[in-house]
TrEMBL record:
Membrane-spanning parts: 14-35
Record GO cellular component, one term: plasma membrane
Keyword terms: Membrane, Transmembrane, Transmembrane helix
Official protein name in the record: Cell shape protein MreC
A GO biological-process term: regulation of cell shape
Domain of life: Bacteria
Length: 285
């Protein structure tokens, strides 16, 4: 009795597993033949969420890929442009140096300007970092008439003064040496603004002025005197609303590390004594 019941149950399960799918396929076939458009619409509606999800995933993957590709390309382009700019600036600097050196040599071979102190051309043997900080070693010394306190220039730009003299070489200390104070004049429009500049090292200076004094980036800074020489160019003006003063930062227009020639100009004894007594730079006459 138990055997027949078990056999009947297995047979009923087999019939259900076989005939239900068959009936479903037959009904589906009849429905497709009778109403093909309805079945297509139902299939499209059922598949729409999956197709939309696939499309969104593909779109997001493409955007993600192009974002990183574009960012990498922009970085490469920026580096390339920066390298080209650096090369162009170096070429321009070399050109300006060569033009100035050419003019200096022509002036030395020709006649000097009337009323101007004599200048001696010296080759620069060492500059920072090969020489002591903010100094340059030049190729002329006491045997060539160089004396302590003589002014060192490059064209019309005053860079420093002779701080040590040997027989055939000398040491030039730049005005930008940290802590060195120099009396200068800032030229702003038609105004001349006297101020004390403090060296910050590496061709940079700072000065403190009352907040109302007009100064702007690009203004020239000169040495005072009858024949003023350019010392620097204003790079930035810093001021807080709460302060009553402003800080003016300026730097040499010549790269100290690129110097190959310097002109040494004699200063008179009065200026030389003032420099040695005050610790400030002698003024060009």
């Amino acid at each position: 009795m138990n055997y027949r019941f078990t056999h009947s149950a297995k047979r009923g399960k087999f019939v259900a597993e076989f005939w239900i799918p068959v009936c479903f396929l037959v009904a589906l076939t009849i429905f497709y033949v009778a109403y093909p458009a309805a079945l297509q619409r139902a299939t499209a509606i059922a598949a729409a969420p999956f197709l939309e999800a696939k499309s969104s995933a593909v779109r997001m993957a493409e955007e993600f890929y192009f974002f990183f590709v574009s960012k990498r390309q922009l970085m490469l382009n920026a580096r390339e442009l920066s390298a080209k700019l650096s090369r162009t600036e170096a070429l321009l600097l070399d050109r300006e140096i060569l033009l100035s050196e050419n003019r200096i040599l022509k002036e030395q071979l020709g006649s000097g300007v009337e009323g101007q102190k004599a200048r001696r051309v010296a080759a620069v043997l060492a500059t920072p970092p090969k020489s002591p900080y903010d100094t340059a070693v030049i190729s002329i010394g006491s045997e060539d008439g160089v004396r302590m306190g003589d002014l060192a220039l490059f064209g019309s730009v005053a860079l420093g003064s002779v701080s040590a003299v040997f027989s055939h070489t000398s040491l030039v200390a730049f005005f930008s040496t940290a802590g060195v104070k120099t009396d200068v004049v800032i030229l702003h429009g038609n105004a001349t603004i006297p101020v004390e500049a403090e060296g910050r090292g590496g061709g940079e200076f700072r000065a403190v002025l009352p907040k109302g004094v007009p100064v702007a980036a690009g203004d020239y800074v000169t040495m005072p005197g009858f024949n003023p020489a350019v010392l620097a160019v204003v790079a930035a003006v810093e001021a807080n609303e709460a302060d009553s003063f402003q800080i003016v930062r300026f730097r040499n227009p010549i790269s100290l590390e690129s110097l190959r020639l310097l002109e040494i100009q004699e200063v008179d004894e009065v200026a030389r004594r003032e420099e040695s007594g005050s610790g400030k730079a002698a003024l060009p006459q």
